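ARCHIVE CARD
Drawer: 12
Card no.: 0347
Subject: one protein chain, sequence and derived structure
Cross-reference: see card 0346
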Amino acid sequence: VQLVESGGGAVQAGGSLSLSCTASGFPFGTTFDTYPMAWYRQAPGKEREPVAVITSKADKIVYADSVKGRFTCSRDNAKNTIYLRMNNLKPEDTAVYYCNVPTLAAWGQGTQVTVSS
Protein backbone atom coordinates (compact mmCIF):
# COMPACT_ATOMS: atom_id res chain seq x y z
CA VAL A 1 0.00 0.00 0.00
CA GLN A 2 1.27 3.47 -0.87
CA LEU A 3 0.16 6.46 1.17
CA VAL A 4 1.09 9.98 0.13
CA GLU A 5 0.42 12.86 2.52
CA SER A 6 0.38 16.50 1.57
CA GLY A 7 -0.65 19.85 2.95
CA GLY A 8 1.72 20.39 5.83
CA GLY A 9 3.40 23.69 6.50
CA ALA A 10 4.10 26.42 9.01
CA VAL A 11 1.43 28.58 10.63
CA GLN A 12 1.03 30.78 13.64
CA ALA A 13 -0.98 29.71 16.64
CA GLY A 14 -4.68 30.01 15.96
CA GLY A 15 -4.22 29.29 12.29
CA SER A 16 -5.50 26.43 10.17
CA LEU A 17 -4.09 23.77 7.88
CA SER A 18 -5.57 20.95 5.87
CA LEU A 19 -3.82 17.67 5.25
CA SER A 20 -4.69 15.03 2.72
CA CYS A 21 -3.55 11.47 2.17
CA THR A 22 -4.11 9.53 -1.03
CA ALA A 23 -3.86 5.75 -0.96
CA SER A 24 -3.14 3.19 -3.64
CA GLY A 25 -1.92 -0.36 -4.09
CA PHE A 26 -4.32 -2.21 -1.83
CA PRO A 27 -4.17 -6.01 -1.70
CA PHE A 28 -5.80 -7.81 -4.59
CA GLY A 29 -9.55 -7.95 -4.23
CA THR A 30 -9.76 -5.14 -1.70
CA THR A 31 -10.44 -1.48 -2.12
CA PHE A 32 -9.87 1.70 -0.19
CA ASP A 33 -13.49 1.92 0.91
CA THR A 34 -13.22 -1.30 2.91
CA TYR A 35 -10.47 -0.05 5.21
CA PRO A 36 -10.55 2.15 8.26
CA MET A 37 -7.93 4.87 8.09
CA ALA A 38 -6.09 6.93 10.65
CA TRP A 39 -3.96 9.98 11.21
CA TYR A 40 -1.04 9.85 13.64
CA ARG A 41 1.54 12.42 14.63
CA GLN A 42 4.99 12.37 16.15
CA ALA A 43 6.47 15.38 17.86
CA PRO A 44 10.24 15.72 18.37
CA GLY A 45 11.41 13.46 21.17
CA LYS A 46 7.99 11.89 21.62
CA GLU A 47 6.32 8.68 20.57
CA ARG A 48 3.97 8.52 17.64
CA GLU A 49 0.38 9.03 18.79
CA PRO A 50 -3.02 8.61 17.17
CA VAL A 51 -4.87 11.77 16.18
CA ALA A 52 -8.01 10.42 14.50
CA VAL A 53 -9.42 7.15 13.25
CA ILE A 54 -12.20 6.98 10.67
CA THR A 55 -14.19 3.89 9.73
CA SER A 56 -14.40 2.68 6.16
CA LYS A 57 -17.75 4.37 5.54
CA ALA A 58 -17.00 7.35 7.79
CA ASP A 59 -19.88 6.46 10.09
CA LYS A 60 -17.63 6.74 13.12
CA ILE A 61 -14.66 8.99 13.79
CA VAL A 62 -12.66 8.92 16.99
CA TYR A 63 -10.37 11.79 17.95
CA ALA A 64 -7.61 12.16 20.49
CA ASP A 65 -8.76 14.29 23.40
CA SER A 66 -6.09 16.85 22.60
CA VAL A 67 -7.62 17.65 19.19
CA LYS A 68 -11.35 17.24 19.82
CA GLY A 69 -13.32 20.25 18.66
CA ARG A 70 -10.39 21.58 16.62
CA PHE A 71 -9.59 18.85 14.07
CA THR A 72 -11.96 17.22 11.60
CA CYS A 73 -11.18 14.00 9.80
CA SER A 74 -13.06 13.01 6.66
CA ARG A 75 -12.66 10.78 3.63
CA ASP A 76 -13.67 10.64 0.00
CA ASN A 77 -13.83 7.00 -1.01
CA ALA A 78 -14.23 7.93 -4.68
CA LYS A 79 -10.81 9.60 -4.53
CA ASN A 80 -9.07 7.11 -2.21
CA THR A 81 -8.28 10.06 0.02
CA ILE A 82 -8.62 11.03 3.65
CA TYR A 83 -8.36 14.53 5.02
CA LEU A 84 -7.53 16.25 8.27
CA ARG A 85 -8.73 19.78 8.74
CA MET A 86 -6.91 21.41 11.63
CA ASN A 87 -8.27 24.62 13.14
CA ASN A 88 -7.13 26.74 16.05
CA LEU A 89 -3.69 25.18 15.88
CA LYS A 90 -1.45 25.31 18.93
CA PRO A 91 2.33 25.08 19.25
CA GLU A 92 1.89 21.65 20.83
CA ASP A 93 0.37 20.45 17.55
CA THR A 94 3.81 20.74 15.96
CA ALA A 95 4.72 17.30 14.67
CA VAL A 96 5.14 15.13 11.63
CA TYR A 97 1.70 13.88 10.66
CA TYR A 98 1.31 10.41 9.19
CA CYS A 99 -1.44 8.63 7.35
CA ASN A 100 -2.04 5.02 8.38
CA VAL A 101 -4.05 1.95 7.40
CA PRO A 102 -4.43 0.27 10.79
CA THR A 103 -5.26 -3.21 9.57
CA LEU A 104 -2.34 -3.28 7.13
CA ALA A 105 0.23 -1.49 9.29
CA ALA A 106 0.89 0.78 6.32
CA TRP A 107 2.35 4.27 6.78
CA GLY A 108 2.89 7.32 4.64
CA GLN A 109 6.13 9.28 4.59
CA GLY A 110 4.71 12.01 6.79
CA THR A 111 4.20 15.73 6.41
CA GLN A 112 5.57 18.37 8.76
CA VAL A 113 3.25 20.73 10.61
CA THR A 114 4.89 23.57 12.53
CA VAL A 115 2.90 25.95 14.70
CA SER A 116 4.64 29.00 16.11
CA SER A 117 3.46 30.97 19.11
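Annotation on reverse: Residues 37 and 101 are 5 Å apart (CA to CA). DSSP finds no helices and eleven strands in the chain.
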